[in-house]
Write a structure and sequence with these properties.
By secondary structure, the chain is of the alpha/beta class. It has a single domain, classed as Response regulator (Rossmann fold), CATH 3.40.50.2300. 44% of the residues lie in helices and 21% in strands. It has 5 helices and 5 strands, in the order E-H-E-H-E-H-E-H-E-H. Strand 4, helix 4 and strand 5 form a beta-alpha-beta unit. Helix 2 runs parallel beside helix 3. The radius of gyration is 13 Å and the shape is globular.
Amino acid sequence: MKQCLVVDDSSVIRKVARRILEDLQFQITEAEDGQQALDACRNSMPDAILLDWNMPVMDGLEFLTSLRREPGGEKPIVVFCTTENDVAHIARAIRAGANEYIMKPFDREIVEAKFQEVGLI
């Protein structure tokens, strides 16, 4: 079973994402901010990461930049999931190593489509 780390400071978003991704046969771990996510990745590198941008302690972009420098950090497929929808934010995310981008609010169809596009399902 593939592993997905859901990183968001909102427990509601994490719960919704968990339900969707478990239905898509992913095993889920959660983190509330980028630092917790980085620690989780150092412990066990996931196959995929659903990543929020705006979080306390370490934001999504800082996390992604740090992740890609970690041993094995190039492997996870990273899908940003955020309210930041301008082209500049999307471009920054892609340059930092994001594989795909989802806008909030999201639903199962959107998550499933994006995860199919990047070859996770």
